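Minutes, project check-in
Item: structure for the 227-residue chain
Input as provided by the requester:
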Amino acid sequence: MSLDSALFLAINGSAASPHWLTALALFATERLPLLLAGGTGGIFLAADRQVRLRVLQVLAAMATAWLLARLGQYFFPIDRPFVVGLGKQWLPHAASPGFPSNHASVVFGFASAVALTAGRWYWASLALAAAVLVAWSRVYLGLHFPSDVLAGALVGAASGSRMIANAVSAAALQHLRSLRRRLGQPDDQGNPDASGARYHRAKTRCIVTIRTRCTKGFCSRSTDNPA
């Protein structure tokens, strides 16, 4: 028996599993993703423009993760556990390819994007905990092998990180363009030396701003509240 199958059987729920554990797994698979999507949509509708831009980045990461997962299932049509008669299946599901897991890809895309945009460690922790719970439930319910959800987690993390990296690059480019527009502009008295000093001050502010956004998350500020 492969390590993947052995891990699956260790996590997969059985008739002897506690009822509350099975109920938690069903909630994580059927309800939690809907709550995450609904909460994200609610924040988008109620928040200001800056937070809406962050929400759009999160949604873009989730959509990218879903698309990559679907492509992976097309090119790597690996059977699910119940298709090969392994373990116990707790939830009806089509016998479609399961590698990588769509659920794991999307929720980890959500979690990674939230972690990089929210600017608060507790939002990142909650998003990651939700993603882990959803991924675990897919194995517990007999719908995926551990390798399916692990691959999904990698797809989601890559999708979220890529979206934020693109956003940070765009912000850096915008700052550099703004800096170039200041070059050669004299001060009010037409003093080129003062213009050069102003250039160096603007350059320093640009570098500090870009480093701060890369470290704390794109568009995050210490006074922002992502909720």
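Outcome recorded: The chain has eight helices and no strands.
No further action items on this chain.
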